[in-house]
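Chain and conformation:
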Amino acid sequence: MRTTVRLDPGLLDRAREVADERGETLTSLIERGLRLVLARGDGGPARRRVRLPVSRATGGTLPGIDLNDSAALLDVMDQIR
């Protein structure tokens, strides 16, 4: 799968050097690094679970609004302003 990632230029240069020294591609070096970090699972302190408030208001969306179509929703919101 292709994706775009923004990296610090110095970090990217160093990663390319290390990949070259090890005889591997930059992609394989990045994949290996991500696997190591994800396997460790120490993403820092545990977060508290957040409970979101539930609206008890009645009504719903305006006629013709499809919440699954974000582009159309943005168009309607721009018209309301």
Q: What stands out?
A: Residues 9-40 form one domain.
